[in-house]
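Course assignment 3, question 2. Fill in each field.
Student: A.L.
Task: Predict the tertiary structure for the chain below.
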Amino acid sequence: MDVQCEEEKELLFVRFSHQGKIESKFVGIKSVEKADASHISQAICAIMDEVSDDWGRKLVALGTDGTLVMTRAKNGVVRLTGRI
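Answer field:
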């Protein structure tokens, strides 16, 4: 039996400095309706809004898997999320 599960989820980890020590933490997972830049960036924002009210102001970099949906110059996830 061939069973396919077509559910897209975004996992989010953050790396930050706390008292001079670099730390990485898993902060959330969220299902996305569609695996496009708009839906993925909305999922990232929703997860981060639960973590911190001012995360957008503190964001320095965003690492991805390098796919076009993430890195497209005009409307990729990095670009959309950086407009916060």
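Instructor remarks: The chain has one domain: 9-81. Strands lie at 8-18, 21-32.
Grade: pending
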